[in-house]
TrEMBL record:
Name of the protein in its database record: SDR family oxidoreductase
Gene3D superfamilies: NAD(P)-binding Rossmann-like Domain
Species of the source: Marinifilum caeruleilacunae
InterPro entries hit by this protein: NAD(P)-bd_dom_sf, SDR_fam, SDR_oxidoreductase
Organismal lineage: Bacteria, Pseudomonadati, Bacteroidota, Bacteroidia, Marinilabiliales
Alphabetical list of SUPFAM superfamilies matching this protein: NAD(P)-binding Rossmann-fold domains
Pfam family, one: adh_short
Origin superkingdom: Bacteria
Keyword vocabulary terms for this entry: Oxidoreductase
Record flagged with keyword Amino-acid biosynthesis: no
Sequence similarity: Belongs to the short-chain dehydrogenases/reductases (SDR) family.
Length: 270
């Protein structure tokens, strides 16, 4: 019998690749996105149901889950992939942008989990995969708002294990490094003014990120890791993905706070 996964944010990037991966592996896929009418590829695949879902809209979350259950009968796995990046000088980022970041990256994932948990508890099984980031474990310049949202999803997911494991519901985190997806192009970046005290260090940091972004890591690695986390049958909780993520997390584990801050500052020429 085919298992069923519901994935948020499947219009591009990790989400679309994950939808294809699960479908190729013989799963039913509920591929959700804000504008499914614009999708030109996934709806052509067998055993794929497209649903409208905006993680900032609770009603659309509940509707998509209900449609998926009605269509396939049961959902076995939730992949919370939808998210985006707010970056810039924290002092200068508008409050509404900061709230929107948490509405999508934290509350969107939380509300999707809350909406599907009654179904998982009734089935006495389920798996939740939350796509975090290497930025949920380490910090870098001018990414404070984004990384705070990812630190939050890490803590939320880890703590919820105690509540949900007794119902045979597993939770896992995917921690990608820098990959060639549209996440960077969809970034909400607050530019600073030329007279800003921050301009010099911001320019240096952005040059550092540009070099980091030149790494041509294949985003299929992340889709494969998401599928593996669902199916490996282990208690592994965190899945760092990408050579850069593995390397920097290993360095963080070996350094104290001062050493790590110094390393990042030197990398960014700050």
């Amino acid at each position: 019998m085919r298992k069923t996964v519901i994935i948020t944010g499947t219009s591009s990037g990790f989400g679309k690749l994950s939808a294809k991966k699960f479908q190729q592996e013989g799963w039913n896929v509920i591929a959700t996105m804000r504008n499914p009418e614009k999708e030109t590829e996934l709806h052509l695949l067998d055993h794929v149901l497209l649903c409208q879902l905006d993680v900032a809209d609770n009603q659309s979350i509940k509707k998509a889950i209900a449609e998926g259950i009605k269509h396939f009968g049961k959902i076995d796995v939730l992949v919370n992939n939808a998210g985006y990046v707010v970056a810039g000088v924290t002092e200068e980022i508008p409050e509404e942008d900061i709230r929107r970041q948490f509405d999508v990256n934290l509350f969107g994932a939380l509300n999707t989990m809350k909406a599907i948990l009654p179904h998982f508890r009734a089935n006495k099984s389920g798996t939740i995969i939350n796509v975090s980031s290497v930025g949920g474990k380490i910090t870098t310049p001018f990414m404070a708002v984004y990384q705070a949202s990812k630190f939050a999803i890490e803590g939320l997911t880890e703590a919820m294990q105690y509540e949900l494991n007794p119902f045979n519901i597993k939770l896992k985190l995917i921690e990608p490094g820098a990959f060639n997806t549209n996440l960077g192009t969809s970034m909400s970046f607050t530019p600073t003014k030329n007279e800003s005290d921050y301009k010099n260090i911001l320019d240096k940091a952005m040059a550092g990120y540009a070099k980091w972004g030149e790494q041509q890591q294949n985003p299929q690695e992340v889709a494969d890791a998401i599928f593996s986390a669902c199916t490996d049958g282990t208690e592994q909780f965190r899945y760092p993905v990408g050579a850069d993520a593995i390397q920097i997390l290993a360095a963080r584990n070996q350094m104290d706070d001062v050493e790590f801050k110094s390393m990042i500052a030197q990398t960014m020429d700050l």
